[in-house]
Write a structure and sequence with these properties.
Elements: H1 2-5, H2 14-42, H3 51-62, H4 70-85, H5 104-127, H6 138-147, H7 159-177, H8 191-213, E1 218-221, E2 240-243, H9 250-274, H10 276-281, H11 285-296, H12 319-343
Antiparallel strand pairs: 1-2
Helix pairs in contact: 3-4, 4-5, 4-7, 4-9, 5-6, 5-8, 5-9, 6-7, 8-9, 8-12, 9-11, 9-12, 11-12
């Protein structure tokens, strides 16, 4: 406290300066301890919820009927509500401790948000339209825009306020969907619509698998134009590159992957309900259920206090490579499922 005692203010003795110094130190220390407690308390991934019972409860509370597409759309709204209302709330846009010091949960949130955005777009483009020339649903168009708002915006406006407006538009669509006198709101549970969304999911998972496997560094050949001798690219790409995720980003990619997988589990369970007849007709129901089980393995408890990054065959575990193995397996199964929906 010597630096405080050197400051001189009228009417204060040297002992008073030391008292003020210790008081300030105590306030800062208490604030840090409280922040550390909340970091521990908020470092939490929500439990699974039953998509069918959740949708039925939502419909009952609003006096609506659970029609085709209701469970799937309601699940998207519930996923977003979970992001906003879980323990600690939405942390990705926090600018003060403890949220500002955390990165695992914010990256998990972003992973969930990615799948919400992708499905929101599929709702607008495919599931709610009978053909390419039909009109977009106005509520779904607004909801998609709201969900794509910057997830790090703290104010003017807050991310949370935009996302809540998106949920309101989803609920508006659900209300019209469940009413017989509003045929303009539809949900088409067709094999081609489902296949289009699954193609996007497969692309997401393929990218995640690559990013996860780059935790230990990999030699990557240029496959951008493989198989097409007439293909061209904007700029030259090296024939071989060594790609490695910075060590500070390894846990970020891992938790983003867990978030995407957690959201996908719920969305696929909702699809299983709303597309049951299509899946049974294509003899693809069991394939979807196996994909869901494989995704559930990605949600196993991480007992290590940190995400380990050992070599692939080294002494220590590599959590990223373990996650990549599950993601790659799911991606391969999704490709088979899409073929079943096309040819089954």
């Amino acid at each position: 406290m010597d630096f405080i005692s050197k400051i001189r203010l009228p009417g204060l003795s040297k002992g008073s300066y030391k008292t003020i110094g210790w008081l300030l130190l105590g306030i800062v220390g208490t604030y840090l301890l409280i922040s550390l407690f909340f970091m521990w308390w908020w470092d939490y991934e929500p439990e699974f919820f039953d998509v069918v019972s959740q949708s039925e409860s939502r419909a009952e509370a609003k006096g609506e009927s659970v029609v085709t597409g209701y469970v799937t759309t309601s699940t998207v709204a519930e996923l977003m509500e979970t992001l906003l209302e879980k323990r600690g709330g939405f942390l990705s846009n926090d600018v003060f401790p403890a949220g500002a010091w955390m990165d695992n949960v914010p990256n998990w949130e972003f992973g969930v948000l990615v799948q919400i955005r992708d499905f929101g777009r599929a709702l607008r483009i495919d599931f709610s339209r009978s053909q390419s020339q039909s009109n977009e649903d106005p509520d779904l168009s607004e909801a998609e825009g709201k969900f794509f708002y910057d997830n790090t915006s703290w104010v003017f406006p807050q991310s949370e306020s935009e996302y809540r407006q998106g949920i309101e538009h989803l609920e508006g669509y659900l209300t019209r969907l469940s009413q017989e006198d509003t045929p303009d709101a539809q949900f088409y549970a067709r094999a081609d619509n489902l296949r289009n969304w699954l193609e996007g999911v497969s692309t997401r998972l393929g990218g995640l698998s690559q990013r996860l496997s780059e935790s230990v560094g990999k030699r990557q050949l240029n496959l951008a134009v493989a198989g097409d001798p007439n293909a061209q690219v904007a700029t030259d790409i090296p024939e071989e590159q060594i790609i490695k995720t910075p060590w500070t980003k390894i846990d970020d990619v891992f938790y983003e992957s867990r978030g995407q997988a957690w959201a996908l589990i719920h969305l696929l369970k909702a699809v299983e309900h709303d597309f049951e007849y299509v899946l049974r007709d294509k003899n693809a129901l069991v394939s979807l259920r196996q994909i869901i089980r494989d995704l559930e393995e990605t949600q196993s408890t991480v007992w290590s206090p940190a995400i380990l990054n050992g070599g692939g065959f080294g002494l220590w575990a590599n959590h990223s490579l373990a996650m990549a193995a599950y993601i790659s397996r799911v991606n391969a199964a999704l490709i088979d499922l899409r073929l079943l929906l096309t040819q089954g």
